[in-house]
């Protein structure tokens, strides 16, 4: 099984079948702010500090699947389908 950028594979055998792990890693950025509609801007600033202003965070998601290699395709799954599922997030 070929290794793709952002993925890892490794395996063993069980009853003559090969078990493989495939990991896909994606990163994304998100922005938000913390405010309570019940409070004034001054109260929100005092309560939430710098988080009162819009700011961002960077996130990394790793999804690992494990399975037996399909003898017909040579794959555990179509890694493109896993990548597409992660893009929906």
UniProtKB/TrEMBL annotation:
It comes from Geodia barretti (Barrett's horny sponge). Belongs to the PTPS family. Pathway: Cofactor biosynthesis; tetrahydrobiopterin biosynthesis; tetrahydrobiopterin from 7,8-dihydroneopterin triphosphate: step 1/3. This is 6-pyruvoyltetrahydropterin synthase. Its EC number is 4.2.3.12. It comes from the Eukaryota. InterPro entries: 6-PTP_synth/QueD, 6-PTP_synth/QueD_sf. Keywords: Lyase, Metal-binding, Tetrahydrobiopterin biosynthesis, Zinc. GO terms for molecular function: 6-pyruvoyltetrahydropterin synthase activity; metal ion binding. Signal peptide: none annotated. Pfam families: PTPS. The keyword Zinc applies. It is an enzyme of class 4 (lyase). One of its GO terms (biological process) is tetrahydrobiopterin biosynthetic process. GO terms for cellular component: mitochondrion. Gene3D superfamilies: 6-pyruvoyl tetrahydropterin synthase/QueD. Its cofactor is Zn(2+).
